[in-house]
Amino acid sequence: MAEVRLKQVRKAYGATVAVHGVDLDIRDGEFVVFLGPSGCGKSTTLRMVAGLEEITTGTVEIGGRDVTRLEPKDRNIAMVFQNYALYPHKTIYENLAFGLRMRRMDKAEIDRRVRSASVMLGLDPYLERKPKQLSGGQMQRVALGRALVRDPDVFLLDEPLSNLDAKLRVRMREEIARLHQEVGTSMIYVTHDQVEAMTLANRILIMRDGHVQQVGAPLEVYDRPANLFVAGFIGSPEMNLVEGHVSGRTVRCGDLQVGLPPDVEAGEGSAVVLGIRPEHVGVAESPGARPFQVSVIEQLGAQTLCIGEVDGVRLRVLMDRSDAISHGTTLPVQFRPDRLHVFLKETGARLNRAGAREGQRPAA
Amino acid sequence: MSSKATIYSFLFLGLAVTALLIVAPVVYAVSLSFYQMDSFVGAPRWVGLDNYARMLSQWIFWRALINGFIYAFGTIIFQVVLGIGFALVLNQVFPGRNIVRGLSILPYLLPTVVVVLTFKWMVDGSIGVLTQVIAALGLPPVQWFESPGAAMASVILVSVWMWTPFVTTTFLAALQTVPSSLYEAAKVDGTNAVQRFFHITLPMLKPILTVIVLLRAVWMFNKFDVIWLLTQGGPVGATEHLAILSYKQAFGQFDIGGGAAVATISFAILSVAVFIYFRLFPLDTE
Ligand SMILES: Nc1ncnc2c1ncn2[C@@H]1O[C@H](COP(=O)(O)OP(=O)(O)O)[C@@H](O)[C@H]1O
Ligand SMILES: [Mg+2]
Is the CB of A244 within 6 Å of ligand 1? Predict the structure, then answer.
């Protein structure tokens, strides 16, 4: 167990820069998720921590030790790969034991560790099998077990669940969360799936085009997205992003006029983007409510998602389950200024000084 | 014609061509070994197993058999070890890699005659490059084709030079099929390069290697042209193996039955060897 510190870690392939200076302090035992769309540099950053990719500039420390120029084997890390990377010609037992054997660990101790990991992951019945005789979920458990037996300073996981089907992915996600609670080792987990990130992370680092966009706890990035990109990336269903212009203490978006949050200072006429989470649109008859014309209804079970238009602006609205709505229904909607996110259109920067306040948000 | 008839007619045609071009000559060659025949025009005389008895009782047969094994094993071991070594080097990232990769196949593309003549030229007693180098190093001159040991070494050397690229190219292609994440997992697991070769590369490529070795072994055991062009089996039979012996017997001694008997025995030995090989190294296990 150890803390991990990245200082201005940067990766260039010739003239193209894949990662532009990442700074991050990971506390001992913390679960950090690198999140971002494909090609944004998550894997490259993780692999620089692992030592599988040379660090162009910057330093990586693990447990207070500068490991920037060390080989992967000397960093005391363990890694789980997307395609499992199990040794196909070795049995499951040998797969689990291999890293320990290479470190010349005592045979009895190897056996003890392999047994305990296989109990923890339910692999006992498969120890004598070869990897190709296992299902995807079982192979991923073996990959986790191979990391587990090593008892490393930090676990590095690169999209470990991407090759699994949706149902299994949810189960394995829970299993990884449980594993983290049980062993308490620091983990860095790479994914492009924001739900995985939200559910697993203590903190999320969001990347785009090799640049860090925001680092924060799941609800922090949810409540206070640092810019337009994060606002659009985090949250499901996606946040409504509506372009408009500041006019006095309101924002005009075509025919729609919405009051500016009190903590936003914006020059008259500036082009902004309003961020409204679908679950933050108030649906109730009240003075000032606008008519929302529903065109598409998605019944999610516990909730109902309506897609439609208000004053010529397309909007997604998430509300408690409602069976009565149909195509063409008109609902009264309103926007509470303290629930609005405002971004400068040109730079995407957030203009709210405080967070969009957390109210009784329906579970997302 | 219905499509079924078409399929059968193609099948029949294929079988007929196979029979004509492969089975018939083999049957003919084997049948020759039971006759006494001093030319292809004279009338053959049935002698049963006499040709076999006669050839097996001569020490030149056993010498040729042993020479064949020495030549085949020698060339295979060097080809495979060097071939894999070069493949591993060419698999590294270095500037100009693609050019070097392309050049490495060159000896394999040259006609045997060209390779042999080049080698003969290089070891020419007065102007040969190798001769000059050896002289410059102050070493005694090598009797490339005159001393029995050196002659065997020469044919092995030339053969290895010619066919190592085949192993290199095949192995290099196979190396590309090993997922890089396996090597990365092994690096994280604490292995060094040598351990990765033995724990990942070799087991992953074992099926391919099995086939490479088999192909090379069959080819080398039957290899005729290199030896014939370099030494014609000499000096005094030092590089004469079964294929050369068979040829000399049939066309030098006008003993066609004896030559056919040697060829048949050689064919039988090879068949048994291949059978044992596949029992030892089955293809369908990991
Ligand atoms: N060996 C390489 N040479 C050049 N560019 C690379 C190389 N490896 C990755 N990249 C680039 O670096 C960027 C980040 O890649 P990666 O870290 O794998 O993204 P992801 O966030 O999907 O894991 C991508 O744009 C990719 O094209
Ligand atoms: Mg990736």
Answer: no
Domains present along chain A, CATH in parentheses: 4-223 (3.40.50.300), 228-344 (2.40.50.140)
Which ligand neighbours the alpha carbon of A42 most closely? 1
What distance in angstroms lies between residue A41's CA and the mean position of ligand 1's atoms? Answer: 6
Atom of ligand 1 nearest to the CA of A45: 17
Ligand 1 geometric centre to CA of A18 (Å): 6
DSSP-assigned letter for residue A265: -
How many residues belong to chain A?
Answer: 364
Q: What does the radius of gyration of chain A's CA atoms come to, in whole angstroms? A: 24
Does the beta carbon of A40 sit less than 6 angstroms from any atom of ligand 1? yes
How high is the pLDDT of residue B1?
53
**Quick check: helix, strand or coil at residue A124?**
helix
* Closest CA in chain B for residue A96: B189
Multiple choice CATH, B33-280, 1.10.10.10, 3.40.50.970, 1.10.3720.10, 3.40.50.1820: 1.10.3720.10
Q: Residue B100: how many CB atoms within 10 A of its CB?
A: 13
What would the pLDDT profile of B68-123 be if each residue is shown by its tens digit? 999 999 999 999 999 999 999 998 888 888 888 888 888 788 888 888 888 888 88
Answer yes or no: do B190 and A83 touch at CB < 8 A: no
> How crowded is residue B264: how many other Cβ atoms within 10 Å of its Cβ?
21
Q: How far is the CA of A168 from the centre of ligand 1 (A)?
A: 28
Proportion of chain A in helix, strand, coil states, percent, rounded to 5: 30, 35, 35
User: Residues A45, A49, A55, A60: what is their CA dihedral angle, to the nearest 10 degrees?
Assistant: 120
d(CA A194, CA B221): 63
Using the atom order of ligand 1, give the atom closest to the CA of residue A40.
Answer: 21
The C-alpha angle with vertex B30 and arms to B26 and B33, in degrees rounded to 5, equals 150
Per residue in B185-240, pLDDT (tens digit) is 999 999 999 999 999 999 999 888 988 898 888 888 888 888 888 888 878 888 88
pLDDT value at position A364? 36
> ipTM score of the complex?
0.86
Q: What is the edge-to-edge ordering of all strands in the sheet holding A31-35?
A: A77-80, A154-158, A186-191, A31-35, A203-208, A211-216
